[in-house]
Every structure is written in C-alpha cells, then in structure tokens.
Design brief:
By secondary structure, this protein is α/β, with parallel strands linked by helices. It contains four helices and five strands.
C-alpha cells in the first residue's frame, strides 16, 4: 500500500464517448486490483460517487480493492446532491475537510479528469507539478 490518494471525479475516464470512458474506468479498476502497488485511498467526487453506489458496473472491482486495504471515500455533498446517500454500497461518506487532509498527507494526488487536450501522461500528476505542460503547450 502506498501513501497516495486517487481522485475519481466522474463515472468514466476522459472526455468524449461515454461508453468508452466507462470501459476505460472499469479496466482501470481491474488493473489496479491486479497491481501490486495500490493507493491508500480513493476519493469519489461529483458523478464519480455513482461508482460506489448500488447498480454501479464496477462495484465488484472496487470491492476487491477495498478488501485489499484501499480506503474508498465518497463525497457526502455529492451523495446528497444526487440523492444517493441511502444507495452507498461500498466505502464510507467523507467531507471536504477530510478529503483535503487526505490529499495533503499523501505523497501524490492523482487526478483523473475529463480535461480536454491533455495527454495521457498528464492524467497522473503531482499537485506540486501543476501545470505539467509548458505554457506554450496549453490549450487556448
């Protein structure tokens, strides 16, 4: 187990085709479960909270990660906003302050966002290294 926190901000990886994004997210969690190194925590924000709720297509993969010692945390505000508080199937609810504390105490925060025009190498970035591109490479 590593001292890393992953932030999952949506139900899929990347921007564009939703079905492809869902497939990528499912594959990501499968491979993470098979990998020897794992984050200490995964925090689910915004529509990402749907992944730890009843009916999620990745519940079994996330359950495996939880059984392997990865802490799964779901944003309480997001659960309430989407009316999913009573549908949480894995992990536990968390608030913004606890999320911030987890990020500040970790070695790395990995951001999986739907940011347009970012290369795969920028999907995993250290907060202290943001931005990861030279200014002349930034999208306009």
């Amino acid at each position: 187990m590593t001292n890393k926190v992953f932030l999952i901000q949506s139900e899929g990886l990347g921007r564009g085709d939703e079905q492809l994004g869902s497939m990528l997210m499912s594959n990501f969690f499968r491979l993470l479960g098979e990998n020897e190194d794992k984050p200490g925590s995964i925090i689910f924000w915004n529509t990402g909270v749907r992944l730890v709720c009843e009916g999620s297509p990745v519940l079994e993969r996330l359950k495996r990660l939880e059984e392997q010692g990865v802490e799964l945390l779901a944003c309480t505000t997001c659960l309430e906003y989407f009316e999913l508080t009573d549908k949480l199937a894995l992990g536990k609810p968390t608030n913004m302050m606890k999320s911030i504390q987890a990020m500040l105490s970790s070695d790395m925060v990995s951001l999986y966002s739907a940011a347009e025009n970012f290369s795969p190498s920028s999907w995993v970035t250290s907060l202290t290294a943001l931005p990861t591109r030279r200014q002349d490479q930034w999208p306009e």
